[in-house]
Specification:
Structural class: alpha+beta
Number of domains: 2
Shape: elongated
Number of helices: 3
Bound molecules: zinc ion
Distance between the termini: 15 Å
Number of strands: 6
Length: 106
């Protein structure tokens, strides 16, 4: 599972992969050093960026598409379908309903 580490001000964050809470800290410490001690972290939730796809029937990991309507994140195949169902959104707003999030935190 994935864990999100972030500073209290939420101005810096990164994602790491680990089996449980304790090993998440160890992996993060090994990778990012002592700064990790001052950070908060939690399991990445369904619908969150890099987490599980927000669609109830889907459990794909690494949701990277932001849905401008639900404000949650989806996997690429669900995002593709949602965009196919909502051509009017693109006509109106000039971009798809679900857009790929550009992230440098990984
Ligand atoms: Zn999905």
């Amino acid at each position: 599972m994935k864990w999100k580490f972030e500073t209290e001000k939420k101005d810096y964050s990164f994602i790491i992969e680990a089996d449980d809470h304790e090993s998440a800290f160890d992996v993060a410490y090994d990778t990012y050093g002592p700064q990790v001690e001052n950070m908060m972290y939690h399991k990445v939730k369904k619908g969150e960026l890099h987490g599980e796809c927000n669609r109830t029937a889907c459990n794909s990991q690494n949701a990277m598409f932001y849905n401008h309507s639900t404000r949650m994140h989806y996997c690429s195949s669900c995002a593709y379908e949602i965009n196919r169902w909502t051509p009017d959104f693109k006509k109106e707003k000039g971009h798809e309903l679900c857009v790929l999030v550009k992230s440098d935190s990984l």
